[in-house]
Design a protein that fits this description.
This protein has about 325 residues and is an alpha+beta fold. The protein contains six helices and 14 strands. Strand 11 (about 255-265) and strand 12 form a beta hairpin. It is elongated and about 125 Å long.
């Protein structure tokens, strides 16, 4: 059974006029450069005739790093392991954080115990004011009956005013104390929340579903914020980064389906792909890339999304046909 590669090659060679010209060129080159060099040249020409672009496969790689300091107590992964998003794969020692949190909680309780009971502390003054108000009513009745003097009434009124000012001053002082304690408690509670967040980050949780590519850290090593622990990538979908010449830009568009080919020795596999990105700027042709027009020194990068059946690997060489 013919492979997709051979079928497409056969399709490219059915044009009679092109075939005649190619045969004449081969005869001429055979006389000039010899059979060995001719074989190499015709092989390269066939590849350029068949494929519209070439490139290498890549995947989005993510490096998971530590967010806290401490000894690594557990890191249950190996290179090549498949891991799920949200999976807990390790632990960093958080003993010091736990002790700091315990100390803060005790300090909060101690401060809250000093919080004044405003109602109890102003109850005495409020009772005195209430008693004086009742006395004022009694003296007022006596004054109206000419049984009490105006001085008695004025003295009681002045006493009530003094007690009222004392009550307001005490309320103000108690409010200042209460607000200060409330602010101190709020500050410490925020510190507790920060520690709880750090304790959560002591659990090494995998960020995305993928395959572990490189393991940078080991159990019992010291982790610091920003230290890489491992690198992983989602290999279920690969990206072929290829390069085309300027005269090929008019033949492609985003979302266009393309055919991608990979060479496994005697086997050539065909994959359906989708054009997902076209560079807006040209660049010099990479040394390891073949283009349709080898004389073109400026090319445009493109990306092709390809579903991976497990055989595609990062760095593997691929070819495509529009």
């Amino acid at each position: 059974m013919k492979t997709a590669y051979q079928n497409h090659h056969r399709y490219k060679c059915i044009h009679k006029k092109q075939k005649i010209h190619k045969n004449l060129l081969i005869i001429f080159l055979g006389l000039v450069v010899g059979p060995t060099t001719l074989t190499s040249l015709t092989s390269c020409n066939k590849e350029r005739d068949i494929f519209d672009a070439t490139g290498t496969f890549e995947a989005t790689e993510v490096t998971s790093s530590s967010e806290v300091s401490g000894k690594i107590l557990q890191l249950d992964i190996d290179e090549g392991d498949s891991v799920m998003a949200g999976q807990r794969i390790g632990t960093i020692d958080g003993t010091q954080l736990i002790l700091r949190k315990k100390q803060l909680v005790n300090n909060i309780r101690a401060i809250q115990s000093r919080n004044p009971n405003v109602q109890k502390q102003i109850a005495v003054l409020e009772q005195q004011i209430s008693t004086q108000l009742q006395e004022k009513e009694r003296v007022q009745r006596l004054f109206d009956a000419n049984a009490a003097t105006g001085k008695q009434l004025d003295d009681i009124t002045a006493n009530i005013a003094l007690l009222s000012k004392q009550l307001e001053a005490q309320k103000s002082a108690l409010n200042v104390t209460t607000n200060s304690i409330t602010q101190d408690v709020a500050t410490m509670e925020a510190q507790v929340e920060q520690i709880e967040d750090q304790l959560t980050k002591c659990q090494i949780v995998n960020p995305l579903t993928g395959t572990v590519l490189v393991k940078y850290a080991q159990k019992h090593e010291l982790a610091t914020p920003g230290k890489p622990l491992y690198k992983l990538a989602d290999l279920s979908e690969m990206t072929l980064r290829a390069y085309i010449t300027s005269d090929q830009l008019s033949k492609i568009k985003l979302g266009q389906p393309v055919k991608v080919y990979t060479d496994y020795g005697d086997n050539t596999r065909e994959y359906p792909g989708t054009l997902s990105w076209i560079s807006a700027k040209s660049e010099f042709t990479p040394k390891n890339i073949h283009t349709k027009n080898e004389r073109a020194n400026l090319v445009y990068a493109i990306k092709i999304k390809v579903i991976n059946d497990g055989f595609l690997k990062i760095g593997m060489y691929g070819q495509l046909i529009f």
